[in-house]
Amino acid sequence: MKKIESLHLEAMSYAEIAALAQATGDIKAALENWHTAFTLECKAADLVSDRHDLEPTRGILHRSAATLAIDCGELRAAEKLAARGLVGEPPEVIAEELRDVFDQAMFHRHLEVHGVELVQREMQMSLSGPGVGKGLAKGKDFISRISNLEKILFRTAERTLRQPFRTSGRRSTETCELVDLYLSTARPSSYAVTVRLGRTQQLGFPEVDLAEVVLDEVLDCFELMERNSDDLGSRIDDPAYLRNFIGLAKLIAPDGDNLTRVGFTKGNGEETRVVTLTSRTARVEFLPTQDEDDEGGEVIVEGLLKYADSLKKQSEIRIVGENGEQHKIIVPEGMMDDIVRPLWDVEVRVSGRKRADKLMLTDIRPI
Amino acid sequence: MMKTIEFDPTSISGLDLADLCKGIGKGISKAVGSCLAEAASVSLERQNHSPGGTMDIVGDAPHSVEVHWDVDPDKERIISSWMDADVAAEWGACGIAALLVEYCTDCTIVARSRKGTGFDYWLGREDATPESVLFQDVGRLEVSGINKGRSSSVAQRVKKKEQQVLAYGKTMPSLVAVIEFGKPLAHVTSHEKD
Fold it and tell me: How far is A278 from A300, CA to CA, in rounded Å?
């Protein structure tokens, strides 16, 4: 036990140094220390691997070592450690965390691009979770995410081109040509497709490739959403674009049940960039809208989305409840077209803040 | 056998972040304690709080305490080393939760392990057996940090953490602490082992 204890304590000391280096931006030092911590924790886990009587110690050490393996990119080792941890009888809490580490290790492998080279203006989108088989995903899960990805890419292109938020009217043909979305056939790596922006040469922008800029911007903002970072608000300074981005990203993010991860891979080899959305992104809150007018806390109503009026000064929808009661909901700029309209005639759950006899919408989801 | 973690803050009037720099139990070294203290002070200063300000404790045992820290003359350097406000809030929350455990329970932090993007802290009695370092007869500290959130955000975070604890089937006692730096407040609840 003494040997296990000293290996574990030493591993945690290196892990803390690594976490601190990562928090303060020293990625090289972080990786070196993650690796040392992993090696030591792995030895500690090895020493208890046959001690099925020693729970929760056995499970916790395996989970800790598997997590450190992911931290330093040893995905195969992470898989093995998590699987070996699950072979014992860890308490359910630890077993669940071991399964989660195993899923993470597997998903990183799915994000690797097999047999396909991603060229400029391309990225791969992968879905993973209990509802996804190898090369098979529920149509609804895939189609809705591709549709919302297309919207978020287009809105980001309009924002990049410094166009005001478009509340009505068609997309401009010129922007369409620059960032039109093309899809490859699906690949059986969980469920993955290549997404390509723009078919034509981008003659209008010789010095910068708008599609590349848009893909990078969307990935940067996804990362900020996943971290629930306040920096997203300063990055997207127009409230309508910000609300729109948050609303669409929440719909692209996994629900946590059928889908547990939605990943994006861009570039090849050493240039590869990977961004993963989890259900954390789906829980990010909308910015408060003019809180000084609000008359109370958050109110949640459920019912059928039956009435929409975007001609008024403030767009309005009505939700018809189970007993026929109607709730008037004000829709802030940036949400009507892309987020609310597709839910017409659908049972929804709406969150909002009370304002006179109406609610100011903060979130809307199909039930 | 540890079944519950009693949390009673009424006997304390203040938390001094400098106490973290001495280390806490066997689970937080002096070096890590100093980082947690720095992250907590940066998170409080980012929300325009000053040393000696009040932090409300809500949840199982409502109370309020003053929070003290030494203001570093090189404030800009410290803030720039914690550029990611969310990371600072998570680390700072661990620091405040560790002090609350130390001063308001009969437990201390006896061990830690790597989990997700952070660390799991494990609680044991002051006279815990040496095996507690390897998670025998321990409770769990669940911590979450929010920079600035409305009360609904805090309530949501607390609910999520408590749901996790319930989903575990109460196989071990736990203390859930959600720290919000805007007001600031600490929402602390204790959950028994079945």
Answer: 24
